[in-house]
Amino acid sequence: MDAPPLLPPDPVPAGGPSRPTDPPRPIAGPVRSGRFPGIAPWVAPAAVVGLGALTLLWHFEPRGQFFFPRCTFLQVTGLQCPGCGGLRATHALLHGDVASAWRLNALWVAALPLGAWSAAAVALERWTGRRILHPLGWRRAWIPVVVAILAFGLLRNL
What are the boundaries of each domain within the chain? Predict the structure, then answer.
């Protein structure tokens, strides 16, 4: 039996090939695998440390404990910084006492829901790829945040 005849190559148009071969496209983003794709590897250890700190704060009242930090600004100047009372307010919130937490540091108590909302929205954005509106989701959100912190720090010392 004879071999089949060889076919001549395809003719090339006068202007060259009509469509050059495209180079392979790069992958759009990092390859994500695992149970929770898109979540940074430091999130789990940070969550464990945070839960441990909250457990310690729940068991021990911050006033009078040597292992809770003291405010250096308060010790040096005698004035309360915007964060003074935040640990005691968190302790009160962990025990369900919102009124005394508000008296200790109103800015911290007011900022916690906004911060939690923003953190959850950013995590969901990274996980799902869909944009989710949140209070700190715009480029210049730091301006009113800094103004609020400075105003609170000034007003609480009048």
Answer: 50-155
Inter-residue long-range contacts of 87-92, CB under 8 Å, 24+ positions, other chains counted: 87/57, 87/62, 88/61, 88/62, 88/63, 90/54, 90/57, 91/57, 91/58, 91/61, 91/62
Q: Which residue has the tokens 């040096």?
A: 76
| Token pair belonging to 69 | 């930090």
Rounded Cα distance, 122 and 99, in Å: 30
Q: What residue has token string 């003291």?
A: 70
Give the model confidence (pLDDT) of 31-69 as tens digits: 455 566 556 788 788 889 999 999 998 999 888 888 888
Residue 24 has pLDDT above 70, yes or no: no
- Which token pair is 8? 């001549």
Tell me how far apart the alpha carbons of residues 124 and 130 are, in angstroms, rounded to a whole number: 8
CA-to-CA distance for 118 and 51, rounded, in angstroms? 19
pTM of the model: 0.67
Q: Where are the alpha helices (DSSP H) in the chain?
A: 43-59, 72-77, 86-94, 98-104, 106-128, 142-155
Least Cα distance to 109 among 91, 95, 85, 89 occurs for 89
pLDDT on residue 122: 85
